[in-house]
């Protein structure tokens, strides 16, 4: 690529993710503390567990782990959502999955913008959980109208940012110089503004409708509300957080601790009470929090159905209380319930529960047509083919609801009619969201075809 040719979207994404991290570290000191704790724990974990280290090295994931993070934003209007899609597209991030949070008492629906190809994920897997507020679920028609008016009038993207998005779309990319400018301009959208758009009375009315409505409608932009590093041992980080002055929520969301991690485990903590000026009146708002995550194997639809069933079973027995008083009982129920989920890599693969990436071992490289009669199982058993878990790159609705709840305040849950509306979301987004299962399936299929064609086998 020449100096003036387009910069790869992967590089823009990596630069943006680093810039976002630097900004957040400055705005939220606890994030810096968390980053150093996570770095320490990850290093210890790799030293303690050479098998894990070897696998991450083999699959090319080792170098991405310490750079890995996700963020979250909440948008107010369809126009904001569709422009955000175009902004993320410049960085090679596409909408994957539809999450309906109304069921959990939060008036939003969401998607995750993330890279989708194997290469792009390896280079930098930065993702942003992006929610759109559902004002249609707010009862008071006057308040709804006022909120709509405020949202319609605000401009969350700089003019230059929009111009650069259009430029990238028209030219198929950005030059080095434009890309640097794009990162700076795009960052502005995610910045915290302590001067609210509303006075104290309206803030209170919005807040009374729902904490989340106040968080979206009262401010100039969709401040990034958390930035989450990936840890290799979430229980160790959870344990050590209090020693560094951070108090996490009582239970880790997602599956229990296992030998073979699956999907996603997450925990969060309240980071800041922000001082806000409401039309010159001093006040407070809690917008931003901290979170850590541990990622495990992506599950097939069959594995996911089993996960959902076992999670529901555990939560029917013990529902974790917001104050943490029954945390131990919940963890015990979870562990008991998940005893029915195989905890062995071979079992997970053979039973079709988890996705894997196939690769040829060193031993296979000296082989020729002698393998022609072997099938996948035989190739694995003979040590020619290996199967490593594919990392889960997405989110979990029950966990996301738990994260929303714990940070909005425990009184925030309200009963909405569960009302998923994916068509509406996609119309507002201006695109279809991709299906996560199809993406994992094709990563798995492509890895197998590559191995087989290297071995000179067209099919198995
Ligand atoms: C998003 C909460 C969901 C996660 O990691 O599941 C989330 C939000 O609070 O805006 O980030
Ligand atoms: Ni999160």
Give a quick rundown of the structure.
This protein has helices spanning 9-27, 29-48, 50-58, 62-65, 78-90, 118-123, 141-153, 159-171, 176-189, 200-209, 211-217, 234-240, 301-317, 327-337, 345-350, 362-365, 376-381, 397-408, 422-429, 436-454, and strands at residues 69-75, 94-100, 108-114, 127-133, 226-229, 264-270, 274-278, 281-285, 289-295, 356-360, 385-389. With 460 residues, it is α+β, with helices and mostly antiparallel strands.
Taking strands numbered 1, 2, ... along the chain, how are they ordered across the largest sheet?
A: 2-3-4-1-5
CATH class label? Alpha Beta
pLDDT under 50 segments (min length 5)? none
Biggest β-sheet description: 5 strands, mixed
Secondary structure class reads alpha+beta
Bound molecules: 2-oxoadipic acid, nickel (II) ion
Strand content of the residues, in percent?
A: 5-15%
Note the overall shape. globular
Any key phrases for this structure?
HGLS, 20 helices, 2,3-Dihydroxybiphenyl 1,2-Dioxygenase, domain 1, 2-oxoadipate dioxygenase/decarboxylase, dioxygenase, 11 strands, binds 2-oxoadipic acid, binds nickel (II) ion, 460 residues, alpha+beta, 47% helix
Folded structure, characterized:
This protein has 20 helices and eleven strands. With 460 residues, it is an alpha+beta fold. It has one domain: 2,3-Dihydroxybiphenyl 1,2-Dioxygenase, domain 1, CATH 3.10.180. The strands form four sheets. Strands 2-3-4-1-5 form a five-stranded mixed sheet. A hairpin with a 7-residue loop joins strand 2 and strand 3. Helix 1 packs across helix 2 and helix 13 crosses helix 14. It is globular. The two termini are 38 Å apart. The relative contact order is 0.15. It binds 2-oxoadipic acid and nickel (II) ion. 2-oxoadipic acid binds next to strand 1, strand 4 and helix 18.
């Amino acid at each position: 690529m020449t100096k003036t040719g387009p910069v790869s979207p992967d590089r823009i994404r990596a630069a943006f993710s680093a810039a976002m991290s630097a900004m957040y570290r400055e705005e939220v000191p606890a994030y810096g503390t968390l980053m150093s704790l996570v770095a320490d724990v990850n290093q210890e974990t790799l030293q303690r567990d050479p098998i894990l280290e070897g696998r991450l090295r083999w699959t090319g994931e080792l170098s991405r782990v310490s750079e890995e993070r996700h963020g979250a934003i909440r948008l107010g209007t369809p126009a904001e959502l569709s422009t955000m899609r175009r902004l993320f597209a410049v960085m090679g991030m596409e909408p994957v999955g539809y999450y309906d949070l109304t069921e959990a008492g939060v008036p939003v629906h969401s998607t995750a913008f993330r890279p989708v190809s194997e290469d792009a994920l390896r280079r930098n897997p930065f993702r942003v959980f992006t929610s759109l507020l559902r004002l249609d679920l707010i009862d008071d028609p006057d308040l709804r109208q006022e909120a709509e008016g405020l949202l319609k009038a605000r401009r969350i993207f700089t003019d230059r940012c929009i111009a650069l998005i259009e430029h990238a779309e028209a030219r198929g990319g950005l030059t080095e110089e434009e890309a640097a400018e794009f990162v700076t301009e795009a960052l502005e959208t995610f910045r915290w503004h302590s001067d609210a758009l509303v006075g104290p009375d309206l803030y209170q009315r919005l807040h009374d409708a729902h904490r989340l409505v106040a968080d979206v409608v009262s401010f100039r932009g969709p401040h990034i509300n958390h930035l989450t590093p990936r840890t290799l041992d979430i229980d160790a980080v959870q344990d050590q957080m209090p020693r560094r002055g951070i108090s996490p929520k009582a239970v880790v969301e997602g599956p229990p601790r296992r030998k073979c991690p699956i999907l996603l485990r997450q925990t969060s903590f309240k980071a800041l009470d922000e001082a806000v000026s409401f039309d010159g009146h001093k006040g407070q708002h809690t917008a931003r929090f901290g979170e850590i995550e541990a990622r495990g194997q992506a599950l097939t639809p069959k594995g996911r159905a089993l996960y959902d069933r076992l999670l529901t079973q555990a939560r029917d027995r013990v529902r974790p209380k917001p104050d943490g008083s029954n945390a131990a009982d919940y963890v015990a129920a979870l562990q008991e319930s998940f005893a029915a989920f195989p905890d062995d890599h071979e079992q997970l693969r053979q039973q079709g529960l988890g996705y894997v990436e196939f690769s040829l071992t060193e031993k296979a490289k000296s082989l020729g047509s002698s393998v022609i009669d072997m099938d996948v199982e035989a190739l694995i058993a003979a040590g020619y083919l290996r199967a490593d878990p594919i990392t889960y790159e997405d989110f979990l609705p029950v966990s996301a609801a738990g994260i929303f709840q714990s940070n909005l305040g425990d009184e925030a849950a309200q009963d909405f009619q569960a009302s998923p509306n994916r068509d509406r979301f996609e119309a507002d987004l201006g695109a279809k969201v991709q299906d996560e299962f199809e993406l994992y399936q094709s990563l798995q299929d492509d890895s197998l075809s590559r191995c087989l064609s290297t071995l000179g086998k067209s099919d198995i």
